[in-house]
Design brief:
Strand order of the largest sheet: 8-7-6-5-9-10
Helix content: 25-40%
Order of helices and strands: EHHEHEHEEEHEEHHHEE
Structural class: alpha+beta
């Protein structure tokens, strides 16, 4: 097991997709990440040996070595998952796959309650691209190119002048009514496959698209877009020329899970 709390383990954690992405955002945007503790579990034996030390780490992802293409996400259908069975599913997909367990510093919401899923693509010194999906969706749809409800393009030279009053001037796309309904149906089908209630989803995911609230965009302007200019030289020195911040909202804030650089995108 590799633990974020053990400094000697961090280099090993960075050898795995998704674990590296999560550590990146904690490093470069520490106020944004909802994750405050993380471990990498190598296999069943590793989990069993460390089980009693993992009781507070109840959120799950999977990963694999960064010298391989990033493996697909393994869906977790149960609220209280069987970790051994999850590890078995990971190993079926990739013998080098690992289980990532982590703790959130926010109270997680239901997947149908979130205001938005957002992917922010950054071409350092050039352009900021934003793809977003609305209520009941998350970063999965935009990061994987499954769906997009709103899109924005912001020239780097406009970072200083952008504010909530002119933000919508940078909008380049809003989904049509028919395409939104199609994306809604696909989203509900996916969440049902993850064990959520069809009725709960139908009641809570809007049947007509409602644009993402301004308070979400204000949060992103204040905590991501504006600081990018200040951090440009630091990010460049660390090799982050093309990267992506993605995740979903928790409450009235965007809390991205990961920072993916151009080597993985």
């Amino acid at each position: 097991m590799y633990s974020l709390k053990n400094k000697k383990d961090i280099d090993n954690i960075l050898k795995y997709h998704r674990a590296k992405d999560m550590v990146n955002i904690m490093t470069f945007f520490p106020r944004l990440s909802p994750v405050d503790d993380l471990v990498v579990i190598l296999d069943e034996e590793d989990y069993i040996k460390n089980k009693d030390r993992l009781l507070n780490l109840t959120s799950i992802r999977n990963g694999n070595p960064i010298n391989e293409p990033c493996m697909k996400s393994i869906p977790v259908k149960e609220i209280d998952p069987n970790y051994i069975e999850v590890i078995k599913e990971i190993k079926k997909e990739n013998k080098n796959g690992i289980l990532i367990l982590f703790h959130l510093n926010v109270k997680p919401t239901e997947r149908y309650e979130r205001y938005a899923g957002i992917s922010i693509g950054i071409s350092l010194g050039k352009t900021i691209y934003i793809d977003a999906v609305g209520k009941g969706f998350d970063g999965r749809e935009v990061l994987k190119g499954i769906s997009c409800h709103e899109r924005y393009s912001i020239p780097w030279s406009d970072i200083r002048k952008i504010n909530i009053d002119n933000f919508k001037n940078y909008n380049t796309f809003i989904i049509s009514k028919d395409n939104y309904l199609k994306s809604r149906e696909e989203r509900i089908n996916y969440l049902v496959s993850c064990g959520l209630s069809q009725k709960e989803l139908d009641d809570n995911i809007p049947k007509k698209y409602k644009e993402i609230p301004d308070f979400i965009w204000l949060d992103i302007i204040k905590n991501i877009i504006k600081p990018l200019e200040k951090e440009e030289d630091f990010l460049r020195s660390c090799g982050f020329l093309e990267f992506n911040l993605s995740g979903h909202t928790e409450g009235k804030r965007f809390r991205p899970w990961q920072m993916v650089d151009d080597k993985r995108m």
